[in-house]
Structure formats: C-alpha cells, structure tokens
Specification:
271 residues; mainly alpha; 10 helices; 68% helix
Length: 271
C-alpha cells in the first residue's frame, strides 16, 4: 500500500530560524532601498556607457545607430535592460511580503518546515537569476564582448572622470546585497530540509499511530462482516411470502391453547 512519507512539522533549531529572520529583515530593507532607488534607470545606462568608453562592453548608442543605418535592431543585453531592474525591485517587494507572512505564521506555529523549504527554494532561485543578470554577459557587440559586467570585476575608478563613481559603488553594493540575500535564503532552505527529517522518536510515534489505525480498520471490517451475515440470515427467514391466508393456516396448525381449551370444555347448547 502506498503511503506518503512522514515529515516533521517542528523546526529542529527554532532559535536559528529566528536569527535568520532577523538577518533576512536587514537584507530585505537594504535590497528594497537600493533597488527602489535604482529604478527605473538611475545608473544602469551610465554604467553601460562607461564600459563602452573604456572598451569593456557594447555601447548603449548601438540601437540609435541601427535605426539611423536601417540595420536590424540589436537585443539589449539582460545586464543593461529595464527588465532586470524591475525584476530586482519585484523580488525585494516579494521578500518583504514573505517575511511579514513568515513572522505571523511562525508566531502561530503554522510555519511548517515543508512550507518554508518550498518558499525558500523559489526565492533562492529568483535571487540566483538576479545575480546572473547583474553580473551577466554582454555579447551584443562582437568587437567588445564581455562575460561579466565591468563594475563587478573592476575598480570604480573608471567611473570617476565622469563623476559616476558613487553610482558605481551603489551598483557594487546592490550586487553584494543580492548575494547576501541568496545565501540567507539558501541557509533557510537547508534548515528547512534538515527539520523535515523526523527524529527516531517521531518515527516511532508515527509507527504507533499507523498500527492503531490499521487495528481500527480491522475491527471495523470484522463488525461489517458480522452485520452482513445477520442481514443474510434475516433475508433467508423472510423469503417465504406472507399473506392473510398464510396467517390463518398457521394459526389453525398451531392450535392455540386458549382456543382449544374453549372447544373441549364447551358444553352442548341443548341437553
């Protein structure tokens, strides 16, 4: 018989979970502030242009050149796209909402390890996508291919002549917060997986519960069998048709005592 695996509903280290929630709160506030300021395009295009001026990546003006020369419009690299900026902001808002819900459910003792593991897995994957986007490649211009965004691997001194060094540091900080959030949710997921594994005492208690359920099922089956047997006997007893004539013949055959005594002791009407 197929049976679902038994998962524990208790966190093995609840204090560690609370500590991770506090760390997650700090990272969520930082991410929400940095990505909220960066939206919609505070420094993204500036970093793109600085990289182009130093020969690190493609130029943001390539789209204008394509329009002017009636050439195919190149695809904007994900690292320099508005989609990535909106994606990062959306993850930050989502993490804020999840943190609030998690705190309430944990206080109510219904934030189970299985629910936490699935949630943390999804958020971890989203942060990994964000990391790939921020440090992603730029191969839109074959003359200046880039495997990693320049502000991740190089110094912000390249942005100093244009007065954008502060924005470069902000972009580095946003990337660091992204990695921090990914690691935090990864630890949350590992803690959830570890808490899902039942202890020896929990496995023994679960086995006793299963044995009790099987015993009750057997007793119920035996009672049902007895009831079915009684119903069959009643059905056999009632197979003979019952009519008023049958009642009359049965009464005559039985010779009820009172009526027979009256017939024997009755005196003749005429002496």
């Amino acid at each position: 018989m197929f049976r679902l695996p038994h998962f524990s509903r208790r966190w093995k280290w609840p204090k560690v979970l609370v500590a991770l929630m506090v760390i997650e709160l700090a990272g969520t506030v930082a991410a929400l502030a940095l990505f909220g300021i960066a939206d919609p395009d505070l420094y993204r295009t500036k970093m793109w242009q600085i990289g182009s001026d130093n020969g690190f990546n493609s130029s943001p003006k390539q789209i204008l050149y394509a329009y002017a020369n009636h050439r195919p419009i190149p695809t904007t690299p994900f690292v320099w796209s508005q989609t990535l900026t909106s994606f990062n902001l959306a993850i930050s808002v989502l993490c804020t909402f999840i943190l609030l819900v998690k705190a309430v459910m944990f206080a109510l003792h219904i934030w189970w390890p299985l629910l936490g593991t699935v949630t943390n897995l999804i958020i971890t994957v989203l942060w990994i996508v964000s990391i790939y986007g921020q440090a992603g490649p730029d191969h839109s211009d074959s003359r200046y291919p880039s495997n990693t965004a320049w502000y991740i691997t190089k110094s912000c001194s390249y942005a100093k002549p244009s007065g954008n060094q502060g924005y470069c540091l902000q972009a580095k900080g946003a990337f660091a917060v992204t990695v921090f959030m990914m690691v935090t949710f990864l630890f949350n997921m590992i803690l959830g997986i570890w808490s899902l594994i039942p202890t020896a005492a929990e496995r023994a208690a679960n086995k006793l519960d299963i044995d009790d359920m099987q015993g009750e099922a057997k007793m119920t089956g035996a009672n049902d069998s007895d009831s079915n047997l009684e119903m069959k006997n009643v059905h056999k007893a009632n197979t003979m048709p019952f009519t008023p004539r049958t009642l009359a013949f049965n009464t005559l055959d039985r010779q009820l005592p009172l009526r027979s005594d009256q017939v024997k002791n009755k005196a003749p009407r005429f002496a």
